[in-house]
Amino acid sequence: QVQLVESGGGLVQPGGSLRLSCVASGFTFSAAAIHWYRQAPGKGRELVATISGMGGKMIDYKDSVKGRFIISRDDNKRTVYLQMNNLKPEDTAVYYCHVPRIDFWGQGTQVTVSS
Question: For residue 21, which of 78, 88, 100, 65 has the smallest C-alpha distance?
Answer without folding.
Answer: 78
